Amino acid sequence: MDELAILGVGMHPWGKWGRNFTEYGVHAARLALADAAVDWRDVGFVSGAITVRCGYPGYVSGSTFARALGFTGAQVASSYAACASGVTALSVARGQILSGACDVALVVGADTTPRGFLAPAEGDRPDDTDWLRFHMVGATNPVYFALHARRRMALYGATPEDFAMVKVKNSRHGVHNPNARYPKEYGLEDVANSPMVSDPLRLLEICATSDGGAALVVSSMDYARSLGVRDPVRVTGISTVTPTYPDTVIDLPYLATDSAAGTEAPDLGFKESIVARAYEEAGMGPADMDVAEVYDLSSALELDWYEHLGLCEVGEAESLLRSGATSIGGRIPVNPSGGLGAFGEAVPAQAIAQVCELTWQLRDQAGGRQVEGARVGVTANQGLFGHGSSVLVRR
Amino acid sequence: MTGNTRQRVPSVEGFFTIGDEPHLIGGRLADSGGYCFPLHLGGSDPRNPAGEVEEVALSRTGLIWSFTNSTYPPPPPFIITEPYVPVVVAAVELELEKMVVLGQVAPGWTVDDLEVGMEVELVTGVLHEDEECEYLTWQWQPIGDRPVSGGGDSDG
């Protein structure tokens, strides 16, 4: 697979601003275009990640952003893939670029979110598993996160303090990030004193919902060269795979796993398979990684990702964390941006924001959170309904 | 609840039976022999493209795979009964079906009473009620003595 050049990146700071999502997306897009030194009128394709919480303009986000920037006749598409929407939009842009349909594309995601739990669409819908899990069980998103945390405790002897240490680490990274919503350092006591949400996970360990926007300007390598960009950060692998039957690990928003009674479970679980595809496209493996941005929807889920990424053996994530390897300055820093713990989640923007962070890291532009000498990085992300994504970038 | 003549009905039909030995209504895939739950929303087996699913009663007992609770009331369409008592949720492994099924844990059991690997059985319990009906859901209940802190009204 040919690579893409990341010419420009931009973000609107995360927060609870309560303004129109379009504003965040356009802000991020203008920054990315300026960073790329690409004129908006030269963009051949606009790839929007959809928000389902902002009405019709959100469903046609690509067009909404394009119109706000000024209609130029560019081609447009909008993609939804739950939390993986941003990378799905990137993969659609890659298809356009590598097929020759355009030279340079703008990928944008932005969201304005309500307070509290993410809830399903309204109405009486007993044939929708997302409706059923709330109605029949009361299984919120943190319930699923906590099931995985408790499982780590039972299988590997993880402790609530291990989980809290993830939050503490990421908060130390996030204080150096001007786009983070919570640029504040938290200690173990802060976590322990925050209210229990879903045992064993406390409020400070569960990702909030945030407003925010993120954008990428990507192009063919030839186009980058024509602009005189000799050594851009490149997208060298993108994964948006679905699970392979039977997926035997319970996940959002399902009431049950698949059954392994008739078909043996595949060697790789779903989350391992997401990352494996990105590694495969790039022809690289975990040992090649210098930095990772992973989806810490909860503190404990970050530990699962260490193992899914192959950064350590299964059951060793707590040791890896406690060794300091995943802190900035360690062997393989994870979430130098501060992660979802410092940001909260702006669903359609989040997977794009992960790529923005790695781009800054690989360009040595990450300021106080810089991972020294980073040349290769990977993102990992999960959504509901069998969505997930991973992007591998290199210098 | 003395003199209660309200009808007991599933909050949503088609997910479980009610009675002395309730069970979940699942599916068995004709081609591969795998199972699914719910019956009509659980299939993703590519070897069963025609979607032929035979209705079966899923095992009534299993082992807790993991568990947690929700100290904050879940949002709608969950219906809160005041005062809100934290919902306890277990993911339970069914040995025959080789699958894990979510469900509430029967009233009276808290996360402090539960362990991964504990044996549980399927019961039904009240999800919400009005003047005419008690609306039921399926629940997992540990097999053995009720906890000291107990006091729910599960009919398991």
Please, could you describe this protein's structure?
The complex is a heterodimer of chains A (395) and B (156). Helices cover 37% and strands 18% of the residues of chain A. By secondary structure, chain A is α/β, with parallel strands linked by helices. Chain A has a domain at 4-116 and 209-226: Thiolase/Chalcone synthase (Peroxisomal Thiolase, Chain A, domain 1), CATH 3.40.47.10. Chain A is globular, with a radius of gyration of 20 Å. Chain B has a domain at 59-142. Chain B is built from no helices and 9 strands. Chain B starts with 6 loop residues before the first strand and ends in a 14-residue tail after the last strand. The chains are: A alpha/beta (395), B mainly beta (156). The interface between A and B is large, with 52 and 51 residues.
- Taking the alpha carbons of the first and last residues of chain B, their distance comes to 16 Å
Strand content of chain B: 35-45%
Number of helices of chain B: 0
First-to-last CA distance of chain A: 16 Å
**Mean pLDDT score of chain B, rounded?**
89
> What shape does the CA trace of chain B take?
globular
Number of strands of chain A: 11
Sequence stretches where pLDDT stays below 50 over 5 or more residues of chain B? 150-156
The largest beta-sheet of chain B arranges its strands as 5-6-7-9-8
State the CATH superfamily name of the domain at 4-116 and 209-226 in chain A: Thiolase/Chalcone synthase
Mean pLDDT of chain A: 97
Helix-strand pattern of chain B = EEEEEEEEE
Can you summarize the main beta sheet of chain A? 9 strands, mixed
